[in-house]
Amino acid sequence: MDTWVWLTAYVVGFGLLQVLLYRYFRRSDPSPETTEGRVDRHGGHGSPGTDVQGVVPCDHCGTVNEAHRMVRYCRSCTESLR
């Protein structure tokens, strides 16, 4: 019977330790809060040259590309979109 008491105490103690460590690290998480939406600095929707659907046409070849801040070059002709 003494073994079962120690085993139960170990399992409960280990679980409690895990919960306490989770709460400690979760509280001190330095990740930034999420923003509600994208900041619009141009007065319209998206960046200049984009239409409402979130696409931007290439000035060189006319291919429609995704309007995303990481997309800088046309996917067809590789000309700069900015």
UniProtKB/TrEMBL annotation:
Task: Extract the InterPro entries matched here.
Answer: DUF7577
Transmembrane region(s):
6-25
**Where are stretches of biased composition, namely Basic and acidic residues?**
28-43
Query: Segment Disordered: which positions?
Result: 28-51
Q: Which keywords describe this protein according to UniProt?
A: Membrane, Transmembrane, Transmembrane helix
Q: Name one Pfam family in it.
A: DUF7577
Where in this chain does the record put each DUF7577 domain? 54-82
Task: Write down the superkingdom of origin.
Answer: Archaea
User: What's the name of the protein?
Assistant: DUF7577 domain-containing protein
